[in-house]
Amino acid sequence: MLILIAGPYRSGTDGDPRAMAANLDRLEAAAWPVFAAGHIPVIGEWIALPVLRSAGAGPTDPLADEVLHPTAHRLLTRCDAVLRLPGESAGADQDVATARRRGLPVYFEASAIPPRTPCEAV
Predict the structure, then answer these.
(1) For all residues of the chain together, what is the average pLDDT?
(2) What are the domain boundaries of the chain?
(3) Which long-range contacts (CB under 8 A, 24 or more apart) does 48-57 make?
(4) CA distance linking residue 94 with residue 108, whole number of Å
(5) Which regions of the chain does DSSP assign to beta strands (E)?
(6) Helical (H) or strand (E) element with 67
(7) What tens digit of pLDDT does each residue of 38-96 get?
(8) Neighbours of 77 (CB within 10 A)
(9) Enclosing H/E stretch for 35
(10) pTM to 2 decimals?
(11) Strand partners, 114
(12) In this structure, how many other beta carbons lie within 10 angstroms of the beta carbon of residue 11?
């Protein structure tokens, strides 16, 4: 499965780059358990931040609202599930709502994600 890892990035940081980096570190820490279970983790910021940089903007620029959440929304058209990490985040809550509307599973702990079985190997 392609699993979107959703959780706080800008929320609660008041635009502090160190706080946003710490939030991204927490999102990325969840990538290994997803991968180790045989799936492909993806974080919206991995795609959105380079897009913003290429537009000469950053995560606190007004353009970020037109890139960060829409990137996750577009990713969810390709994802098979969401891993929602703890913490207040309107964007992550939107991701969960979108996933549920699409009938995708939403996990709240990496350990709840079913491992890929050997017969699923390519």
Answers:
(1) 94
(2) 26-104
(3) 48/72
(4) 15
(5) 2-6, 40-42, 81-84, 106-107
(6) helix 64-75
(7) 999 999 999 999 999 999 999 999 999 999 999 999 999 999 999 999 999 999 999 99
(8) 8
(9) helix 31-36
(10) 0.92
(11) none
(12) 17
